[in-house]
Amino acid sequence: MNKPLILVVEDDNSVKNLITTTLKAHDYRYLTAQNGASAILEASSHNPDIVLLDLGLPDIDGVEVIKRIRTWSNMPIIVISARSEDTDKIDALDAGADDYLTKPFSVDELLARLRVTQRRLNMMQNESAAENSVFTNGKLKIDYAAGCAYLGDEELHLTPIEYKLLCLFSKNVGKVLTHTFITQSIWGSTWDNDIASLRVFMATLRKKLEKDPDSPQYIQTHIGVGYRMMKVE
Ligand code: CA
């Protein structure tokens, strides 16, 4: 199997060196770009497996880079942001980023995000190959055709909205979904009320899905941002 190719887009040399040294030490191949224009060029000419994208670039804003790449590719994009504001991450996720890292981050965090994204990639490739109508993740099984979900041998008794939520997460496993994306997908709107309702539905869904709803195994909370279904081994 080929080593995954990572495109590292970062104008800060010390951060770029930290990332590329880490990648080299862990069997990844990489390309680098210092600004948005060359990021788009490298992404289109080399078709990397994953893009690590700094949001604060000297020419084009990182969010704009995501929007342009998304016009022709679904390649996974992990955003790296020095800005701690949630709005930047949320804009990036809504523009189509898969995940985010906030500076300063550790080497372990970086490697963990890459692994999550690779698992998601593998899962997507396997699923499109098999054209599966059944989704499995750990003990969770969803039969899309029958409209039923199971945990082990037990059928989950979900309300229609809980089931829609679960399907939305399963179809985006490994990806952080923002509150806006979720409420748009479920209700077709994004009033503040919907975000409040979303919290309520998430709580009831977790009670049914998670062994311990206080330390969930399947669905992570990203405070102020949204939720993500994790791939469970
Ligand atoms: Ca920067």
Salient structural properties:
4-stranded antiparallel beta sheet; alpha/beta; 233 residues
Give a written overview of the molecule.
The strands form three sheets. This protein has a five-stranded parallel β-sheet, with helices on both faces. Strands 6-7-8-9 form a four-stranded antiparallel β-sheet, with helices on one face. It has a three-stranded antiparallel β-sheet with strand order 10-12-11. The chain starts with a strand and ends with a strand. Helix content is 45%, strand content 21%. With 233 residues, the protein is α/β, with parallel strands linked by helices. Helix 6 crosses helix 8. The structure holds calcium ion.
Quick overview:
This protein is an alpha/beta fold.
Describe the secondary-structure layout.
Layout: E1 5-9, H1 13-25, E2 29-33, H2 36-46, E3 50-54, H3 62-70, E4 77-81, H4 86-94, E5 99-102, H5 107-130, E6 134-137, E7 140-143, E8 148-151, E9 154-155, H6 160-171, E10 177-178, H7 179-187, H8 192-209, E11 219-222, E12 226-229
Parallel strand pairs: 1-2, 1-3, 3-4, 4-5
Antiparallel strand pairs: 6-7, 7-8, 8-9, 10-12, 11-12
The structure holds calcium ion (CA).
Calcium ion binds at residues 11-12, 54, 56-57.
- Strand-pairing-aware structural class: alpha/beta
Q: What share of the residues lie within helices?
A: 40-55%
Amino-to-carboxy terminus distance? 21 Å
**Outline:** globular
Characterize the quaternary organization of these chains: single chain
What molecules are bound to this protein?
Answer: calcium ion
Order of helices and strands: EHEHEHEHEHEEEEHEHHEE
Could you describe the largest sheet, including whether it forms a barrel? 5 strands, parallel
Strand content: 15-25%
Averaged pLDDT? 90
Helix count from the secondary structure assignment: 8
Question: Regions with pLDDT < 50 over 5+ consecutive residues?
Answer: none
